[in-house]
Amino acid sequence: MSLGIAMLAWLGGDALMGADQPQWGHAWGRNLASTERGLPGSFDMGTGRNVRWVAPLGTESHSTPVVARGRVLVGTNNGRPRDPRHVGDRGVLLCLDEATGALRWQLVVPKRAEDPYLDWPNSGMSSTATVEGDRAYVVTSRGEVVCLDMAGMENGNQGFAEEARLQSPEGEPRVAAGPLDADVLWHVSLHAEAGIWSHDAAHASIMVHGDELYLNSGTGVDNTHKKIRTPDAPSLLVLDKHTGRIVARDDERIAPRIFHCTWSSPSMGVIDGRPRVLFAGGDGVLYGFETVSGKDVPGGEVRRMKALWRFDFDPEGPKEDVHRFNGNRATSPSNIYGMPVLHGGRLYVAGGGDWFWGKNAAWVRCIDPRGTGDRTGTALVWSAPLGRHTMSTPTLSGGRVYVADSMRTLHCLDAATGRSLWTETVDGEVWASALVADGKVYVGTRRGELSILADAGEKRLMHRVNLGAPISATATAANGVVYVGTMTTLMALEDGARAGGR
Questions:
Q1: N or C: fewer beta carbons within 10 Å in the chain?
Q2: Model pTM greater than 0.70?
């Protein structure tokens, strides 16, 4: 993307959205609002009203679907095997036909066997894929970055020919690549090449800029939840998108201050006239970095990136010897699960005490991302409290901010001031974020409830239904269709469609 186009995306907000949705969040700013139109405000799974198709997933699915080049990519596990050659617990990335939901190919990777906390059993492939042109990039549940041919094996095995090694558990017979297997173009292990220590499951969404890939490393605590085994590991990584070579990494030494894990994926935007990388570390601090060109980094070298600015999201939280606060619901450091969102020249971030181990305090904050140095005391525009914990990425639309929390509440706030406009109680905790599209707000819960509300300054519920399985992933809108994934099923919802009822 050229700087001029990026500037238009930054200044124009939603102007470039619509059509395919090849990554999690739109343009550089990562906003989860779309300009898609004609989307259903209600549907009926029993009669098939406004349902284009329904595709089975595994038994656990936490990945947000993306749509590009007539394909839908979504992560899941192997609880319902699609190929009898691949059995047992695996991380799976499914490539489905956009029109029908039929399987086109799948990336299947074995679980790491050394320690379940490196690759949590049955959790599947939680990362959201990113598509650019005819290539897809994803961080697997094993902590590997993989580049895939969007055509799969339909056009032959392109270059790399070791898929059998990648998709076979160590010590077991090799499973040769077949017609339903992904065509891997390159891969790199973040454990071996970057020295990270995965925790639970990799959860990353890669951002593409020029010839480089920007991603969070997923490094975190070990199985004791009280030790950082790799204190020198990076939190932010930059890879060459053509080869997977690690071009750069942060030099902020964040790892020793990580309370749980590095959850948040980076954003980008044009700030002070230049493209910037916006990143929330596992230490609860926001960082702004310059972009990097691999052409300026000689082969074999890895550039160390120093932050241009930093903003402590929770300056009152502990910063040293952080793991002594594990399980303390009154006092602990903060962390950030969702992505920082740049919109209208402001940065919106939700975070607070760790959902599983931290204090019962959370906020959504609006920050001025300009300037340099420590901006903790000067960059805050406003702050609004949330209930206990949050995993959500804020969504901006029409001068409003939508964000959910662990207290089963969806908040609608004024984007300029943080003033509460309305709240809605939903049935179940919210791990996902809100999708805003076509005047509607779509949000799912861990009890399987999907709510559709009006995107407006006054609360209006349009539709509510329980889909029968927990929802972890954010809904996606592309080409006139809304994709809603539960742990076990992906639904393509289209106004006027009628699939076979169940």
A1: C
A2: yes
